[in-house]
């Protein structure tokens, strides 16, 4: 219905304009980013940005921008020097002196810190004061040009430098740099409004070495040599309004490949990899064609670039008109396994070009729409490319993943709505992190979030049909592309932002259907549905009595009410029934169509119209039911546990044509170890037409069944004769044919079967000798000379098979493992592993798959007590300089060793690596692996669980990982796994000073303690949200303005910094601004900076800042700050002595004058206090840490 | 004395003959020699014709022992026409003719595979052991470093190259298999050379898209032969009138 599409679109547009209110008091129209020097040796970057903004409110006196890590030299607005403050509370979430070690506290503080700089709350790290000369100009809402000179030195995040240590120039060495990060992380490499909702046009200029190429967003307008001809400048223009978060950069000595099919597409890779690049990208044009066709929309940008870089942050990162990939996705034509994976990555990144880059989002809570749509169209591409089976298998896999995750952690909420921002309304209270910001999310949660988003899109498609769905997408895109070609003045750009409500409105306009219940169930609410089903056949009434129960009380579940499809396969055919699941109806009567008449030999019609002969002897004589499926189309996010007889599962496996049904039955058959199950599985294994993944799953199921039936099993070990028949020579059955992997299905089966066979066990719970010999023979006779494809994955799986065959060593009185008492079988295995591992050094395999498998196998041998447990080998493979897959495998072994042997030393080694490793992905992965396989958990006694470890981890997540959101969230996950939400049990109970520590947002005086005592409370002082209110400005005319540098290291001392730069605000802040400020106004604390104890703290007269805010009125009163003379100390002391200031003490004094807030706090505090007094009761006078001395010294405790 | 006299005659005669650039002394040479040595030559014919001269009989001819003929095997080959006939004859054929000998070929597939496999394994083991012996090693057992020696892990400065690029052996193999399967030859290798053909192919596939996007077809058709890609354009020289090339 295209004609109707247009009308509502126009209406929508108007509404859309109203719908989006920028959280910022200005609108950005254009930004210039110019990087004129990049030094690979020093890993530094120098440049400037220029932002063109239009104020949207009169009396805009300060402009907040995002910037992290950057050293800002100078800010000018319309060529006038402007004062600025750089303050980033996320650098150190809780004050370093704090003894608080409670994760709840941290998470709240962290969320507050992130929102204090969140551009979508109108905040930012960099606060620029508009010079007073321009106020009049601003009041007329005239354009402002903000020019910021900045540099970056050794960035720890945002930009990643890869500089291999070999001889030669930087270009010869293959040194390169690229932007990276999780969600909006552009602020790490240049000052900007780091939000997905602030669109503007871009001019990007990069001056690089003449041998290098700078790839960035938009069109390359020209490349110009510098005067000395040694460098060249790349000029890019991006005329499509784009959010800063979608800006990227990659510089390196890239080889350039123009796509032979589409000349506007250019591919880049590192030197020597061009042949691989040619092969890898030769497929991309088909993805383009597919998306353009289904969306009936041209690719929105005029060009597209793919860059393959080493040490990539993620495998795929999509930015406006360019994508950055991991170089490890490149492969030659000989590699089978990597090909589909790489193609998937390409397709994924292209889908995100349309939704994610071109169409951006209004706010974080609209993220699900973008991820959902891009994931959904990516799924359509999968369906077309790999077929319906693969697609359905993938959907099932994703569904299982999200169900498992939600049941474990308690739910993924796609569209969180935050009313008031108070913790009580937190929609995700079951989680140990806040879901209010993308930057506080656990990485795993975010992956699951994306997974759920595209599944929900599929549910919407089920509801409104794919045709309408694609129309909606087309509408979004065409609106956006109309808007993108308009000038800024037309105020159309917000059309390029998608919001949940806008999206839903489009759906209802296009389809005319009400999908509100669906949205309410899956988008506005977290949790999945858990069904338990069972049935009985009533012969008299010829009725199937189906009972469907739900579990909606346990974690991560919700109640489902609505239609549910049930498919019943009867003798006369397959019938769909739609049941209404209601509150109290458990039983559903379904009339059967066929009488049980099994004497007539007749073909049985299946769902797809096919008619087959079945051997019906196994079934119940009285019942016409062959099998039953609940929700066969996966149109509910659910887990179904259904009970039916084993023969029904077997029929389902053999005759149901849906791969999902086949997989479900395979899973169910594990519980029925009978000869009939064995036969059904073997038949499936042999069936060529059957989907290869089902056959692979059948292998493992067969191994399990064989193990359960071990005492009655007859014949050769499971699968052996099958494998022999399929892959071995006719004349000599013990020798495998020379490899020929032309048929991928049999290739995958050939790879999998030995791995599954190795899981077989005999009556003594050992791997049968026959199987081991068989696998060793496979390795021995493996011959790949005539094969068109590489056999590296196959050989790797053979090693996995060897590892699978290992059983625990029989240990005689705990002797030390030596060579002499080595089991002869293990000796054979070890011989193979040694040979493989050594051969890898001489003839390395693609992605070193064999080394990876060998390392895993060695760890298995160690763990089973055949080989002495020792991490040194793994540690050497984990070093920087090995291929990343090897490193990860080795680190996994070390993590496992740490757990099994409870080694403090190895844990320390891992933690050091988390902090120091040059590759961000590896750091992230170690944390991830430690979380998955923790050395201990919160309820476990472990010698590793010490106070030092708590402190170390706390430090890591508090300040050590501030340059990488993903890493910080990973550290939080680990902390949660190890210690839980509350105070770690290994810590001594809080000392006196701690008792006084008030938790987050409860900076209310303990009634028993006089106000001054509070002043010594470090936590309250660093309560991050308070930073947001610390708005002070340098005097623009202060003497040392130009030389001023704001060092990153000192920024966490920014409180001190600010205090010395505090000038009264001459103007009241705008109402617009204060509105977006976090509502929780807390006492504002001015830290006092006393360098190197120049005078005894106690003697120092307390100085502080009093912030009076009248929360009731919207108008913020001017900040009243009374300053001690000390505060007038020159700035230079603080700005230039990062080291000294870092270690010097802070004393915090504050006066709380906010009555309204106080009330609230008191209320909360009651509760809190109870909790703390409990702790106090247990052990009131624990007194151990060195910090306690410090607190005693502090004036606040002197009484 | 007689002997030295005679040899002196010979020596001098040879010198005279050589003096006149000949190799064979003639009678006149001897005459000159004798004259030089003070011998009256004229007396010589008379002396030779004296009546009571003694005649020395020739030594009896003894039958030379016949050297046993070298064992000949087969007919010596006649000279080919380009070799002058005075050259020595060819040696016996057995010294240069190769006789291909066939051992009974191992036709048993099983044995062959077995052999190939164990040979390869032995080579691999020997090679890796050698490498392990000559370089640093790691070991799984503290007490024994020789039974399962592992070549020590050595970090690379550019690890992705070895991991991603196929080894030479594999390249070789691929060429072999490729040449054997010409039909499987994909166009990926030759893409840059066949741009025009590729384009037409792409066009055909694109027709559906092109109809909806006329502008797209323009950009795709327009430059069949000249690829207009900004990254392929030449780098411009800096403009002089500008103070800086930037901003």
UniProtKB/TrEMBL annotation, chain A:
Domain Transcription initiation factor TFIID subunit 2 TPR repeats: 646-1004
Basic residues composition bias: residue spans: 1144-1171
Cited SUPFAM superfamilies: ARM repeat, Leukotriene A4 hydrolase N-terminal domain, Metalloproteases ('zincins'), catalytic domain
Alphabetic keyword roster: Nucleus, Transcription, Transcription regulation
InterPro entries: Aminopeptidase_N-like_N_sf, ARM-type_fold, Ig-like_TAF2, Peptidase_M4/M1_CTD_sf, TAF2, TPR_TAF2_C
Location of this chain's protein in the cell: Nucleus
Domain Transcription initiation factor TFIID subunit 2 Ig-like: 526-644
Role, per record: The TFIID basal transcription factor complex plays a major role in the initiation of RNA polymerase II (Pol II)-dependent transcription. TFIID recognizes and binds promoters with or without a TATA box via its subunit TBP, a TATA-box-binding protein, and promotes assembly of the pre-initiation complex (PIC). The TFIID complex consists of TBP and TBP-associated factors (TAFs), including TAF1, TAF2, TAF3, TAF4, TAF5, TAF6, TAF7, TAF8, TAF9, TAF10, TAF11, TAF12 and TAF13. TAF2 forms a promoter DNA binding subcomplex of TFIID, together with TAF7 and TAF1.
Record's subunit section: Component of the TFIID basal transcription factor complex, composed of TATA-box-binding protein TBP, and a number of TBP-associated factors (TAFs), including TAF1, TAF2, TAF3, TAF4, TAF5, TAF6, TAF7, TAF8, TAF9, TAF10, TAF11, TAF12 and TAF13. Interacts with TAF2C1. Component of the TFTC-HAT complex.
Similarity section: Belongs to the TAF2 family.
Name of the protein in question: Transcription initiation factor TFIID subunit 2
Lineage of producing organism: Eukaryota, Metazoa, Chordata, Craniata, Vertebrata
Name of the gene this protein is made from: TAF2
Automatic annotation (TrEMBL), chain B:
Compositional bias segments (type: Polar residues): 207-220
Cellular compartments annotated: Nucleus
Region of interest: Disordered: 172-247
Highest rank taxon of the organism: Eukaryota
Main location: nucleus
Regions of compositional bias (Acidic residues) in chain numbering: 173-187
GO molecular function, one term: protein heterodimerization activity
Alphabetically ordered keywords of this record: Nucleus, Transcription, Transcription regulation
Example GO BP: transcription initiation at RNA polymerase II promoter
Classification via InterPro entries: BTP, Histone-fold, TAF8, TFIID_su8_C
Basic residues bias spans: 234-247
Domain Bromodomain associated intervals: 1-43
Residues annotated as signal peptide: none
A Gene Ontology term for the protein's cellular component: transcription factor TFIID complex
Domain Transcription factor TFIID subunit 8 C-terminal: 82-130
Stated family: Belongs to the TAF8 family.
Name this polypeptide is given: Transcription initiation factor TFIID subunit 8
């Amino acid at each position: 219905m295209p004609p109707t599409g247009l009308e509502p679109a126009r209406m929508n547009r108007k509404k859309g304009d109203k719908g989006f209110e920028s959280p910022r008091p200005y609108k950005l129209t254009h930004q210039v980013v110019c990087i004129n020097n990049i030094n690979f040796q020093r890993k530094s970057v120098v440049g400037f940005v220029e932002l063109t903004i239009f104020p949207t409110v009169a009396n805009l006196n300060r402009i907040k921008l995002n910037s992290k890590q950057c050293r800002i030299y100078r800010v000018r607005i319309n060529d006038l020097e402007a004062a600025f403050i750089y303050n980033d509370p996320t650098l150190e979430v809780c004050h370093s002196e704090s003894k608080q070690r409670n994760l709840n506290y941290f998470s709240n503080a962290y969320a507050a810190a992130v929102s204090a700089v969140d551009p979508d709350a109108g905040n930012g790290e960099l606060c620029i004061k508009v010079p007073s000369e321009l106020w009049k100009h601003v009041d007329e809402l005239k354009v402002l040009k903000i020019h910021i000179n900045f540099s970056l030195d050794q960035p720890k995040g945002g930009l990643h430098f890869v500089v291999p240590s070999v001889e030669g120039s930087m270009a010869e060495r293959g040194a390169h740099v690229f932007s990276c990060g999780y969600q909006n992380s552009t602020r790490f490499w240049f000052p900007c409004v780091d939000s997905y909702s602030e669109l503007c046009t871009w001019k990007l200029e990069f001056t690089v070495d003449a041998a290098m190429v700078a790839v960035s967003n938009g069109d390359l307008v020209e490349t110009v040599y510098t005067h000395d001809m040694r460098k060249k400048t790349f000029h890019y223009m991006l005329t499509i309004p784009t959010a800063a978060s979608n800006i990227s950069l990659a510089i390196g000595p890239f080889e350039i490949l123009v796509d032979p099919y589409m000349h506007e597409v250019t591919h880049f890779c590192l030197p020597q990899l061009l042949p691989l690049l040619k092969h890898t990208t030769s497929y991309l044009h088909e993805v383009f064609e597919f998306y353009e066709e289904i969306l009936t929309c041209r690719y929105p940008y005029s060009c597209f670039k793919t860059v393959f870089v080493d040490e990539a942050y993620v495998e795929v990162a999509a930015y406006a008109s360019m994508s950055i990939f991991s170089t490890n996705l490149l492969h030659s034509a000989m590699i089978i396994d990597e090909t589909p994976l790489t193609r998937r990555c390409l397709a994924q990144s292209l889908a995100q070009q349309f939704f994610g880059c071109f169409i951006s989002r209004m706010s974080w809570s609209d993220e699900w729409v973008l991820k959902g749509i891009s994931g959904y169209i990516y799924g359509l591409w999968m369906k077309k490319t790999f077929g319906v089976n693969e697609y359905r298998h993938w959907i099932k896999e994703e569904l299982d993943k999200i169900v498992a995750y939600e049941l474990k952690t308690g739910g993924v909420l796609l569209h969180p709505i935050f009313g008031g921002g108070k913790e009580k309304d937190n929609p995700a209270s079951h989680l140990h992190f806040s879901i209010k910001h993308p930057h506080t999310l656990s990485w795993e949660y975010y992956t699951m979030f994306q997974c759920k988003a595209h599944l929900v899109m599929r549910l919407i498609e089920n509801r409104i049909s794919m045709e309408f769905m694609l129309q909606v997408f087309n509408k979004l895109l065409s609106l956006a592309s109309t808007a993108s070609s308009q000038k800024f003045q037309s105020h159309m750009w917000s059309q390029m932002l998608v919001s949940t409500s806008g999206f839903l409105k489009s759906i209802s306009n296009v389809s005319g259907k009400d999908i509100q219940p669906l949205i309410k169930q899956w988008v506005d609410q977290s949790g999945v549905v858990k069904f338990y089903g069972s049935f009985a056949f009533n012969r008299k009434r010829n009725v199937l009595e189906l009972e469907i129960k739900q579990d909606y009380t346990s974690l991560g579940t919700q109640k489902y009410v609505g239609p549910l499809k049930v498919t019943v396969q009867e003798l006369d055919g397959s019938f769909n029934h739609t049941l209404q699941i209601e509150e109290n109806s458990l039983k559903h009567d379904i009339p059967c169509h066929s009488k049980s008449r099994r004497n007539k030999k007749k073909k049985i019609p299946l769902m797809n119209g096919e008619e087959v002969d079945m051997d019906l002897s196994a079934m119940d004589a009285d019942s016409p039911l062959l099998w039953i499926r609940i929700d066969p189309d996966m149109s509910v996010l659910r887990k179904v546990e259904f009970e039916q007889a084993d023969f029904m599962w077997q029929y389902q496996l053999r005759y149901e044509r849906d791969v999902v049904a086949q997989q479900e039955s395979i899973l169910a058959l594990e519980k029925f170890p009978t000869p009939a199950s064995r036969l059904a599985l073997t038949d499936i294994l042999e069936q060529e037409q059957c989907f290869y993944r089902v056959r692979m799953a059948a292998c493992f199921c067969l191994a399990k069944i064989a193990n359960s039936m071990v005492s009655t099993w007859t014949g050769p070990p499971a699968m052996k004769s099958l494998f022999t028949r399929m892959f071995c020579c006719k004349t000599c059955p013990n020798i495998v044919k020379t490899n020929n992997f032309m048929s991928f299905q049999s290739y995958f089966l050939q790879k999998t079967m030995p791995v599954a066979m190795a899981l077989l066990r005999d009556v003594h719970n050992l791997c049968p000798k026959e199987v081991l010999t068989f696998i060793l023979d496979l390795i021995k006779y493996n011959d790949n000379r005539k094969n068109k494809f590489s056999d590296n994955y196959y050989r790797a799986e053979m090693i996995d098979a060897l590892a699978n065959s290992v059983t625990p060593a029989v240990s005689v009185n705990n002797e030390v493992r030596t060579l002499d008492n080595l089991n002869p079988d293990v000796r054979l295995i070890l011989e193979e592993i040694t040979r493989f591992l050594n051969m890898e050094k001489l003839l390395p395999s693609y992605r070193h798959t064999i080394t990876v498998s060998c390392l895993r196998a060695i760890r298995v041998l160690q763990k089973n007590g055949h080989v002495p447990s020792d991490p040194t080998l793994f540690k050497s493979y984990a070093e920087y300089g090995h291929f990343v897959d090897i490193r990860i495998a080795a680190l996994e072994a070390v993590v496992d060793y740490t757990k099994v042997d409870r080694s403090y030393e190895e844990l320390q080694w891992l933690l050091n690596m988390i902090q120091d490793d040059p590759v961000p992905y590896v750091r992230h992965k170690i944390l991830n692996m430690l979380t998955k396989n923790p050395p201990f958990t919160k309820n476990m006694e472990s010698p590793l669980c010490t106070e030092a470890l708590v402190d170390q981890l706390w430090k890591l997540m508090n300040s050590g990982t501030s340059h990488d959101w993903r890493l910080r969230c990973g550290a939080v996950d680990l902390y949660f796994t190890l210690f839980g939400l509350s105070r770690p049990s290994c810590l001594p109970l809080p000392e006196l000073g701690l008792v006084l520590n008030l938790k987050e947002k409860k900076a209310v005086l303990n009634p028993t303690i006089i106000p001054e005592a509070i002043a010594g409370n470090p936590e309250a002082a660093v309560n991050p949200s308070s930073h947001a209110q610390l708005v002070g400005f340098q005097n623009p005319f202060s003497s040392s303005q130009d030389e001023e540098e704001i060092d990153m290291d000192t920024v966490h001392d920014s409180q001190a910094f600010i205090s010395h730069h505090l000038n009264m605000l001459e103007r009241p802040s705008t109402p617009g601004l204060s509105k977006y400020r976090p509502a929780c106004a807390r006492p504002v604390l001015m830290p006092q900076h006393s360098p190197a104890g120049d005078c005894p703290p106690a003697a120092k007269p307390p100085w502080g800042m009093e912030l009076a805010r009248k929360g009731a009125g919207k108008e913020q009163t001017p900040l009243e700050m009374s300053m001690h003379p000390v505060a007038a100390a020159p700035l230079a002391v603080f700005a230039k002595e990062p080291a000294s200031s870092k270690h010097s003490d802070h004393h915090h004094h504050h006066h709380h004058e906010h009555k309204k807030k106080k009330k609230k706090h008191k209320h909360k505090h009651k509760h809190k206090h109870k909790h703390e007094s409990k702790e106090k009761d247990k052990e009131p006078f624990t007194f151990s840490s060195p910090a306690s001395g410090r607190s005693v010294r502090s004036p606040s405790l002197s009484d | 004395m007689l002997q030295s006299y005679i040899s002196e005659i010979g020596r001098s005669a040879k010198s005279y003959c050589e003096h006149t650039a000949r190799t064979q002394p003639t009678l006149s040479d001897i005459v000159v020699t004798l004259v030089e040595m003070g011998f009256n030559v004229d007396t010589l014919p008379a002396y030779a014709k004296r009546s009571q001269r003694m005649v020395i009989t020739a030594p009896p001819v003894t039958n030379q022992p016949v050297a046993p003929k070298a064992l000949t095997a087969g007919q010596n080959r006649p000279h080919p026409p380009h070799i002058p006939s005075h050259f020595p004859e060819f040696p016996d054929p057995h010294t240069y003719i190769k006789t291909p000998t066939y051992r009974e070929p191992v036709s048993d597939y099983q044995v062959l595979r077995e052999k190939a496999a164990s040979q390869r394994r032995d080579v691999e083991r020997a090679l890796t052991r050698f490498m392990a012996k000559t370089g640093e090693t790691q070991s799984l057992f503290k007490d024994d470093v020789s039974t399962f020696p592992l070549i020590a892990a050595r970090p690379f400065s550019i690890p992705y190259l070895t991991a991603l690029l196929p080894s030479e052996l594999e390249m070789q193999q691929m060429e072999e298999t490729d040449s054997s399967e010409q039909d499987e030859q994909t166009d990926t290798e030759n893409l840059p050379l066949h741009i025009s053909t590729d384009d037409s192919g792409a066009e055909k596939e694109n027709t559906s898209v092109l109809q909806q996007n006329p502008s797209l077809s323009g950009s795709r058709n327009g430059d069949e032969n000249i690829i207009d890609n900004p990254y392929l354009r030449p780098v411009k020289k800096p403009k002089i009138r500008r103070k800086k090339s930037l901003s």
